[in-house]
Amino acid sequence: MTLHMEKGGISISARRFLWKLSYLQRKCIFSVLSVGRLPTHISFIMDGNRRYGEQRNLKEGAGHKAGYLALMLMVIYCCELGIKYITAYAFSIDNFKRGPDKVQYIMDLMLEKIELELSKKDSLFSRYGVKVHFSGNMELLSDPIKDAAKRLMVATANNSNTLLTVCFAYTSRNEILHAIQETCQEKLAQIQLQESISEGRISMCNPGQGNHVLKLADIEKHMYMAIAPDPDIIIRTSGENRLSNFLLWQSANSCLISFSQLWPGISCWHLVWAVLNFQRNHYYLEKKKKKQI
After folding, report:
1. Alpha-carbon distance 167 to 153, whole Å?
2. How large a percentage of the chain has pLDDT more than 90?
3. Residue of 47, 94, 122, 143 marked active site
4. Using an 8 Å Cβ cutoff, are 263 and 67 in contact?
């Protein structure tokens, strides 16, 4: 087969051929990985988009667009490997403290990409059976973004192969605060209902009213991330080892992996290495979980 070069780069037919070749290579590697224990849930802290663009002298925002493409490729790799849950840390509440122009660009890009996926007849999400869910304080977002996010969630609601959770306007502190507030309101409503029935005063400390005591399960069901199990692996790019207020509640037994590569440059090989590292440490992580039960 001859690969023709077009002006400005490789031809579309050549790209398709190389993609198919890459797919066959991945299929062989993933089949070997599948012999061992595969993670159920992989989360990504997508760090380094801006620096990626700056290092390559790209125009403003190009690094974030490259980061979006990297996420879509990683979703494909995870689907091919059989990962059931994927979570991406897309935008922290703390990021609202950045310059208004930078924040607005991210918001515009998010809206653009959501509308793009909604407009496709054969989108990546429908092809791979990916259900999309947005987690975070959605009240901090503009109405157009909230509306687009809801429409994408509805459009992909019947997909069942993989759940992609996009954490947008999210921090763990906000998630925990939200869950505690919701739990307290729920318990208060139960107490008020009981009081209206019995016309008596109910004490939270009364042993006979144990159903009104806050329990771990009560809080966890109100977490933004209650939709997915705790992550087996958390991958962070750009060489940082911080969780940056991401999944603090859920990551006690996660395998934390940091790559020096900036997010837009992440590849299938990084995913393979992360899974191999998880498999190597799986026995220790499972033993640690059992001790906490």
Report:
1. 13
2. 76
3. 47
4. yes
pTM equals: 0.88
> Which tops the pLDDT comparison, 22 or 42?
42
Single-letter amino acid, residue 51:
R
Tokens of 60: 């403003």
Residue 234: Cβ-neighbour burial (10 angstroms; 0-12, 13-18, 19+): buried
In the annotation, is 47 catalytic?
Answer: yes
Distance, CA of 225 to CA of 249 (rounded, Å): 10
Is a pLDDT exceeding 50 seen at residue 282? yes
Q: Dump pLDDT digits (tens) for 87-102.
A: 999 999 999 999 999 9
State the Cα–Cα distance between residues 215 and 154, nearest whole angstrom: 32
Tell which residue, 171, 178, 175, 165, has the closest CA to residue 94: 171
pLDDT tens column, 156-176: 999 999 999 999 999 999 999
Residues 6+ apart with CB under 8 A from 56: 63
Taken as a whole, the chain contains a residue count of: 293
The pLDDT assigned to 10 comes to: 61
In one-letter notation, the amino acid at residue 83 is I
d(CA 95, CA 52): 18
Residues 13 and 33: their CA atoms lie apart, in Å, by 30
Q: Please state, in angstroms and rounded to a whole number, the distance separating the CA atoms of residues 169 and 141.
A: 7
Residue 123: CB atoms within 10 A of its CB come to 17
Cα distances (angstroms) measured from residue 281 to each of 39, 195, 253, 257:
11, 51, 11, 12
